[in-house]
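Moderator note: this is an archived Q&A kept for reference. The question asked for a predicted structure of one protein chain; the sequence and the answer are reproduced below.
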Amino acid sequence: MKVVLVNGSPNAQGCTYTALSEAANELEKQGIETELLHIGKEPIRGCAACGACGKLGKCVFSDAVNALAETIAQADGLIFGSPVYYAGISGQLKSFMDRLFYSHGKKLAGKPAAAVVSARRGGCATTFDDINRYFTINCMPVVSSQYWNQVHGNTPEDVRKDEEGLQTMRTLARNMAWLLKCIECGKQNGISFPQREAVIRTNFIR
């Protein structure tokens, strides 16, 4: 079993990375393989709503989304991390997740997922909600912890002093490992992901 952790911060080894690394280390202790991906500093295009990914199976734009999508889709569990920017997720991660979920959402359905946020001071709750909305529209079990999955600090050194935040990351990792093992046990005993009905779409204006 494998969990992919996506660092949505432009800083490859900053505060968000520090939080994700704490979770990754605990997952490894629980026997779960991990891979930490950084979406990078290069520009990531926003979704153009062209719909071409429905035919191609991938986005038409060649950047970090297509480069990382299949690695993410092949994971058993996912953790997306973001710094808090203006009480929301980073612009790069927003564009990344918009296009990832639009082009690969069917491949992500059923995978346990979690959000991790890093802030100097405030804005964690709304950033946390931003990320979780992708999971809850896509039939993905949301993994929780003993507190909201957040750390505080302006530098990685600050984050390492946030004992409660780091403990929250470790608890999150143990809960993720437990759920993945439960799902695997279910598969071995004939319990599969629920069959989906044909999607019904209604408009508010008729």
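Archived answer notes: The chain has a mean pLDDT of 96.
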